[in-house]
Amino acid sequence: MSSPVKVGLISLGCAKNLVDSEVMLGALTRDGMALTTELRDADVIIVNTCAFIEPAKQESIDAILRAGKLRQSGRCRALIMAGCMPQRYPIELQKELTEVDAFIGLNEVPRIATIVRDLLNGTGKSVYHSGAAKYVLDASAPRLRLTPSHYAYVKIAEGCNHPCTFCSIPRIRGAHRSRPLADVLAEIRMLLAGGVKEINLISQDTTSYGKDIGTSLSALLREIEQLDGDFWVRLLYTHPARWTDELIETMAQCTKVCRYVDIPLQHINDKLLAAMRRETDGRFIRDLLLRIRSALPEVAIRTTFIVGFPGETETQFSELLEFIREAKFTRLGVFAYSREDGTAAAKLPGQLPARVRRDRRDRAMATQQAVSRELLRGMIGQTLRVLMEREGEGRSTMDAPDIDGKVYVRGTAKTGEFVAVRITGAKEYDLKGETMR
Question: Taking Cα atoms as reference points, which of 304, 324, 316 lies closest to residue 271?
Fold first, then answer.
């Protein structure tokens, strides 16, 4: 009896891409293939790529080049480039990356096992691309989770309809399309039955969930609130223009929804927000933050900003710094503007040098570091509910996986367990505490 085909997969980019990787791994194992984390032992190597901004694209290409060396010198018989990069550049990549055996777009995610078999049998194609992204997973999709057993990502929709001038996501991921509410709930029930304690709801625009199928994010949260079990649910990737009073009220009423808001604002200056086509202005943003904080007094707000956007002046950047100090965001990330081909912003005048963009990113993060240090020091003496990640380390409701801070815990606590932790110390982004038993 011949040994099974061994597959190694490299997953790059965001949590939404990670879910695609999990679905591919599930399909491969259902087909009888074996998985390996040691790429030198792999018969097939798949790199699931990101194409959001230039650094992500370069990381994807670097991963392919490293894997390509194994294609030449190791046992690897097929190298596959999957995900956002080949969805965006199927023909261009075929010309540039000759070491790749197949480029597969987003619609081909559920067909990965068949594609691998065809490549190994010599009947495969070099490009698998079926036009604009339309695939949406469902609860019946095979899935091998790559997250720890106590938390999971649930992708509730795909695509985006927003016109942001800096962003290539709609061209890559297609138009917004929601999963049926019952299907999302079916997946969450399966995860809870398997011991998951944290459900992270994700999509390119979580706040637009349901608008295309006659439901809403608020309706989904109310249904999740009725599910049995000791768990919490977190919202990621919300758009400020799609927040409603109903959503704010629903979050306030649902005890299982984390008091955590991930809401990329991108800037505060009206002129730049208009140039970005963010469908918001500074007054709208300040009012929205006030409404959220009034209804959810203990909320942790995470945001991201873009600095160095075409035409951004030093005065406009200073306005952003002052807003960061004023708004006191619990968590904040900053991107230096990336000029993405095919986007409206790429054609704008006033493109700034890379050194200016990097300098503004560093100054913005230094400003936030001071804000964060002050906020976290103010939490010393409080008791927080913490989900343990591993021995001595956990996350509170204000800490999303991989992107936010941690709580370093002294005392007895098991991985995947909720514990009460009294905060005894703070750093710029992390807390220290001890269990309350």
Answer: 316
Which secondary structure element, helix H or strand E, spans residue 116, and what is its range? Answer: helix 112-121
Residues 6+ apart with CB under 8 A from 181: 210, 213, 215, 219, 220, 223
Mean pLDDT across 421-432: 97
Q: In this structure, what token pair is assigned to residue 301?
A: 């707000």
Q: Give the residue from 119, 122, 93, 121 showing the smallest Cα distance to 105.
A: 93
Tell me if residue 177 falls in helix, strand or coil: strand
Mean pLDDT of 59-64: 95
Please indicate, yes or no, whether the overall pTM of this predicted structure exceeds 0.90: yes
138/153 Cα distance (integer angstroms): 13
Contact at 8 Å (CB) between 281 and 270? Answer: yes
Find the farthest-apart pair of alpha carbons in the chain and give their distance in angstroms, rounded.
71
CB atoms within 10 A of CB 64: 23
> 364-385, pLDDT tens digit by residue?
999 999 999 999 999 999 999 9
Give the SS3 label for residue 23.
helix
Candidates 171, 239, 227, 231; CA nearest to 203 is 239
CA–CA–CA angle 60, 64, 66 (5° rounding): 115
- Give 403-409's long-range contacts (Cβ < 8 A, gap of 24+): 403/302, 403/331, 403/333, 404/302, 404/331, 404/429, 405/331, 405/376, 405/429, 405/430, 405/431, 406/430, 406/431, 407/431, 407/432, 407/433, 408/432, 408/433, 409/433, 409/434, 409/435
Query: Is residue 142 over pLDDT 70?
Result: yes
In the chain, the N- to C-terminal Cα span, in Å, equals 55
Residue that has been written with the tokens 């409603």 in this structure: 244
Cα(434)–Cα(424) distance, integer angstroms: 7
Residue with tokens 């606590």: 413
Q: Residue 390 in contact with residue 375, Cβ under 8 Å?
A: no
Mean pLDDT in residue range 32-49: 96
Q: Alpha carbon of 154 to those of 26, 366, 399: distances in Å? A: 15, 33, 17
From CA 326, how far away is CA 286, in angstroms rounded?
Answer: 10
Is the Cα torsion angle 273, 277, 281, 286 positive or negative in sign?
negative
CA distance 226 to 137: 24
Interval 1-20: pLDDT, tens: 578 999 999 999 999 999 99
DSSP-assigned states of every residue in 340-395: -TTSGGGG-S-PPPHHHHHHHHHHHHHHHHHHHHHHHHTTTT-EEEEEEEETTEEE
